[in-house]
Records
---
Amino acid sequence: MAEFIINQEVKTETPTVEVTISPNAPLPLGRHTFRLVVVDDSGNTSVPDDVVVIVADQENPTAVLSAPRTAGLGQSFTLNGERSFDAGGGRITTYLWTYLGQG
Ligand SMILES: [Ca+2]
């Protein structure tokens, strides 16, 4: 395991390395590029190989709906979803409302 800092090489003698992410300092959502250069036992160095890892929001948001307990006959009222929230680094952009009928 290793904490990676931009443009700072991490050297291992093993062919794998864990990219250790602190929950307090996650990689932001989006594309992140990592590079590998290998060196042989004669000191010959490879050309770099780069990969892109996309950090994505993979967690579902939670809907929280509140409404007035009662409404007068013929009176409009407001449904409120502002206490809904998202996990995984994203944000809520769309609210889908449905009337499910009486009862
Ligand atoms: Ca999410």
---
Amino acid sequence: MNKLLEKLLNKLPFVIVFAHQKGGSGKSTICMNVSTELSKQFTTTFIDFDKLQQMTKYNNNREEPINSVVIKDERKLEQFLRNDKGLTVIDLGGYDSDLSRVVLLLADMIIIPMSDSDNDIDGFREFSHLIEKTFKIRTDSKAFILVNRVHHADKSTHRGLTKYVENTIFNVFDTVVRDNKLHTRLLSTGKNVVEKQFFSKPSKEIQSLVQEIIEKA
Ligand SMILES: Nc1ncnc2c1ncn2[C@@H]1O[C@H](COP(=O)(O)OP(=O)(O)OP(=O)(O)O)[C@@H](O)[C@H]1O
Ligand SMILES: [Mg+2]
């Protein structure tokens, strides 16, 4: 078996959470792409805590929906995770609540999609304090920034964000997901970008991100 796959298999149960209090940074979009790709290799369950329920709608439109559970409160979430043996992927939505703080505490890997716009950085400053508090309790958890929705020729955003979080608890994925129209029609088609156009740039980026998630889990 592929050594990388084996590494994550040995870590199961494992919880990946897409989070950022800044709205519209790409949490649901990246979650749709990544969760359905990961589900091809691991027993995966999806939980939608985003108020807009976009991932749920996308999943319902899929030919082969991935397993999902509807959970409304912290107690039920803890109960579910206590019994689950696979990979759980959570779209946390852009809000702060008691439930979202518990979700962050239960995460093994937090993925924060963002760009270096003033709004994203400003939102991140506040959000990063929350994650830092969480990591005082969950010392084994990891947080990764994913540079998302940048111009196809942009090089400075990744460099800038890497410098920005230097010597902090945050890491930055090497993979950059660039602005591409293919990402804007996932929900209505029930297909991720790899399934839409395997040889496209967005597909290569998502495949690279999935590899990196497995490698760094
Ligand atoms: N890499 C990308 N290329 C092009 N469009 C993108 C990309 N990433 C996200 N988008 C678009 O940006 C918008 C916001 O993305 P998305 O809904 O995933 O953000 P979000 O963080 O889940 O927002 P919310 O905080 O409201 O839950 C959507 O219209 C989506 O199609
Ligand atoms: Mg969302």
